[in-house]
Amino acid sequence: MINVSIIGCTGYVGQELLRIALSHEKINITHLISKSFAGQMLSKVYKNYFKDYDKKLEAMDIDLICKDSDVVFTCLPHGTSAEVVLKLFDKGVKVIDLSGDFRYDDVNVYEQWYKTKHNAKELIEKAVYGLSEVYEDKVKTADLVGNPGCYTTCSILPILPLINNKLIDFNNIIIDAKSGVSGAGRNESLALSFSEQHDNFKAYGLATHRHTSEIEQELSKAAGRQIAISFTPHLLPIKRGILATTYCNLKGEVKRQDVIDAYKVYKDKPFINVLNEGLPEIKHVAGSNNLIIGFKIDERLNRIIVVSVIDNLVKGAAGQAIQNMNIMFGLKETEGLNLVGWYL
User: How far is 314 from 287, CA to CA, in rounded Å?
Assistant: First the structure.
């Protein structure tokens, strides 16, 4: 059994992580940490946890957590997370961090986009970017994994094969993405209230969203040169799910079969499905750890339009974190994650 602790377990990502972990046959939950609800039972915060699933929430005790844990998941805000991860790492426990603090190769990029100083710069070089389908070999031996962002997972994976096979122009890549409200976390905000969101649809973070830099980092590494993208996120009046529509100009005469062949890199990846026809929808993946990709070549404009969907709380956060844990501990990658999309 793998002894697991979750720090920040009462946020949406933390509770989704716990929900999945409780069904994982190789996981033993040792500590659930919550600053706001320490000392209370989990069922006081989330009524779906009762009887054998109910557990007591604890205050932070780094020594105790490390003593009892093989791996710790940190589901904390950026900045705060780095400070905690540094303490955990120094005591030799493996960490999977779900904030943005350990996703970057260059700390200067992080500080520029997050508008804050990094509190554990010495760990940047030790962290592995946890995009499971791309960095599996590195994740296997990692002691610290920076779990990717939700928008980034839904955007990077569909574009990488097109870049690696030089099918697209590296300039003028446009990503138009829409996310459910849970992507903003569990907090009281007028902008996220029912009356503000219901029957509404809006763009936000134009040209400034932090995930832009994370997507650019990974696409640039694949291209072998700096890539700048235009990324626009939108807020959908739904609870969960992301749909990203990406526009790329093709290089020369690219046929549909060329694209299909490029996507064959994912044929053995259990959580990625590339459609032969049709386009994916959010309800096809909600509640699952799956990413579905569909595409259309616009011959008139010599452009490819790629549509990709994930559940932002699962493949975009908690599910991918469990996937990384499975890889780190030599388990079957799908362990605890054979989740069919809810559809309804």
Answer: 7
Q: Whole-model pTM above 0.85? A: yes
Chain-centre distance of CA 29, in angstroms?
Answer: 22
Looking at the chain, the whole-number percentage of residues with pLDDT higher than 90 is 89
The mean pLDDT value for 121-141 works out to 97
Distance from first CA to last CA of the chain, Å, rounded? 34
Instruction: Tell me what the pLDDT averaged over the chain comes to.
Output: 95
Please report, for the domain that includes residue 270, its CATH number: 3.30.360.10
Out of 9, 66, 75, 150, the active site residue is 150
Query: Rounded distance, CA 255 to CA 295, Å?
Result: 12
Query: Is 178 in the same domain as 296?
Result: yes
Residue 303 confidence (pLDDT): 98
List the CATH number of the domain containing 63. Answer: 3.40.50.720
Q: Judge whether 150 counts as a catalytic residue.
A: yes
How high is the pLDDT of residue 182?
Answer: 78
**The total number of structural domains that make up the chain:** 2
Position 269 in a domain: yes
